[in-house]
Known about the structure:
This protein is an alpha+beta fold.
Amino acid sequence: MKLAGWFDRCSGLMFGRSSANTPVDNYTVEDVYHKLADELGIPIIYDIDCGHVPPQITFINGAYAEVEASEGKGSALQYFQP
């Protein structure tokens, strides 16, 4: 995805919770997120209320969003632009 340019205009990534996030040989999903953030040079927010584990909010495909996160809490305001 990186080589295809998917992250060229990306200002951050968000990942929801997953019941599959178990360590493998002491390598955790948090290790993956930190390495990805360093490689892409963007912030990553994880363990958010979306995905396959309740509670789940819906992010609208094609919407823009303003996201704020601090000290384990955050908000996302979604909107459309003409």
